[in-house]
Amino acid sequence: MNIYFDNASTTKPSPSVVEDICKSMQEDWYNPSSQYEPARLVALKLDKARKQIADYINCNPDEIYFTSGATEANNWAIYNNIVQNDSFTNLVIDTIEHPSVFNQYKRIRQENLVHTISIPLYHLSIDKIELILKEFMKAHKYSDTLLVSVSLVNNETGIINNCIEEIAQITHDLNGYCHVDATQALTHIPIDVDKLGIDYLSSSFHKYGGVKGIGFLYCRRGCPLSPMLIGGHQENNKRAGTENTPYIIAMGNQIERLSKTEKQRWNKMNELSEYLQSSVFSTYDSHHCPIKRNGTDYELSPYIHSYTIEGIKATDLLTLLALDGIYCSAGSACSSGENKPSRILKNLDLSEDEAKSTIRISLCENNTFEEIDYFCKRLTYHIINLQHSK
């Protein structure tokens, strides 16, 4: 039995997506920038995909820019904008951002490009956030433009930031722009960029039954967006290079399909999430093994669970689970090579030992109650053996 509980890392492509890609590879291989009829038809399909995405997040199609994924989109909105726009002189990010945002912040600080600050936007009250941002801007004499970057759903803990709309408003009041990393949220949580008032949004297709290597950046009309790649006229002269037509078409179709089942999927995920949490806690209570789910002081996405199991090394536990065909992780795949405690977990006040004893279980709609039962059974078995082997 193979059980995949690492969906926050990547998801298995859905059959519909694979079918869309294969069909498009056969039919839509013409260059959409060419002027003859078959190529123009391909260009129309790209326009359709752009509109499908725009309709889902409530924006204009020309505000959608195709990228290789959320990492590129994040870099485009933050580092590329700051380097190429002299007006950007102030950057604020959340302390628990994904490495594709946080490592940009570190680089910008090291290169002393703009004034920077990292604060727990997920944790503070709106009044406190407003005070900090105002003091930050005042310290720099309200110079030029502020850029604030915050994730909608944290990739390691599932913490949902419910204050995006208020943060965006405060940012605008300070002559700034708000960027949201929606990688772990798109198609899971309703997103209306107009209602939220955000200016940039990043997403990757492989997080919701798609494939790697494609995603998009939303940029509100009138907001700064310097060219990412120089060359041809693609993406409104902002990102040169022939478009990945099959992947783009599949992404548009998948988002449209998922938009029709959003509520049902959310309800199912809540049921799976509650069953997983109750099963984990009841199992370990009976074996006197201290365990906690991280982030429970906040609203959590049912898709992502972070559990700290006291006294058990996550690396040992994950190795044993993998031998059973159960695949989960210790956190973000983008941080797994660092071989040190998670920065995000330490920002949640976990000790170094607690961070090293934490595993992430990330679900999708294809997971089942039976898989959770088997997972808990094997997890208990391995924890008992690891405790006795000390």
Written description of the protein model:
The protein is α/β, with parallel strands linked by helices. The protein has 2 domains: 3-12 and 262-388, Alpha-Beta Complex (Aspartate Aminotransferase, domain 1); 15-259, 3-Layer(aba) Sandwich (Aspartate Aminotransferase, domain 2), CATH 3.40.640. It is built from 14 helices and 12 strands. A 7-stranded mixed sheet has the order 2-8-7-6-5-3-4, with helices on both faces. Strands 9-10-12 form a 3-stranded antiparallel sheet. Strands 1-11 form a two-stranded parallel ribbon. β5 (145-151), α6 (164-173) and β6 form a beta-alpha-beta unit.
What is the residue-mean pLDDT, rounded to a whole number?
94
**Count of alpha and pi helical runs:** 14
Strand content of the residues, in percent?
A: 5-15%
Q: How would you classify the quaternary structure?
A: single chain
Could you write a compact summary of the structure shown?
This protein is an alpha/beta fold. It is 44% helix and 15% strand. It folds into two domains: 3-12 and 262-388, Aspartate Aminotransferase, domain 1 (Alpha-Beta Complex); 15-259, Type I PLP-dependent aspartate aminotransferase-like (Major domain) (Aspartate Aminotransferase, domain 2, 3-Layer(aba) Sandwich), CATH 3.40.640.10.
SSE inventory with pairings:
Elements: E1 3-4, H1 15-27, H2 37-57, E2 64-67, H3 70-84, E3 88-94, H4 99-110, E4 115-119, H5 126-139, E5 145-151, H6 164-173, E6 176-181, H7 193-196, E7 200-204, E8 215-219, H8 234-237, H9 245-259, H10 262-285, E9 291-293, E10 304-309, H11 314-323, E11 326-327, H12 343-347, H13 352-356, E12 358-362, H14 369-388
Parallel strand pairs: 1-11, 3-4, 3-5, 5-6, 6-7
Antiparallel strand pairs: 2-8, 7-8, 9-10, 10-12
Helix pairs in contact: 1-9, 2-9, 3-4, 5-6, 10-14, 11-14
